[in-house]
């Protein structure tokens, strides 16, 4: 079953753009691991928040990706920029009107 991870990541004041840069760095490893979509966004009304939408082939593929060297390096680079505030949802996708 396709797996979605949709959430928010809190950035320290003034660090949002640097965090976005880390999160949007090109990564062929993610698609090879089963990531179908990884979108990063911002809302100017929330200057210390980054929004992330991930779609994976499975929850198992998502979990396995967290063990990849490239992903672990990105997490470590981002860690000093984080406020510790996280939010969001994880769920199995049951359908879409855009595809069969």
Structural features:
globular; single chain; alpha+beta; 4-stranded antiparallel beta sheet; 100 residues
Number of helices: 4
Number of strands: 4
Rg (C-alpha, Å): 14 Å
Strand content: 35-45%
Order of helices and strands: EHHEEHHE
The overall pLDDT, averaged over residues, is: 96
**CA-CA gap between termini:** 14 Å
- What portion of residues is helical? 25-40%
Q: How many strands, what sense, and barrel or not for the largest sheet?
A: 4 strands, antiparallel
Detail the poorly predicted runs: none
Using the alpha-carbon principal axes, give the shape.
globular
List the strand order in the largest sheet. Answer: 2-3-1-4
Q: What is the structural class?
A: alpha+beta
Report on this model:
This protein is α+β, with helices and mostly antiparallel strands. It has 4 helices and 4 strands. A hairpin with a 7-residue loop joins strand 2 and strand 3. The relative contact order is 0.32. The model has no long low-confidence stretch (mean pLDDT 96).
Give a short overview:
With 100 residues, this protein is α+β, with helices and mostly antiparallel strands. The protein has four helices and four strands. It has a four-stranded antiparallel beta sheet with strand order 2-3-1-4.
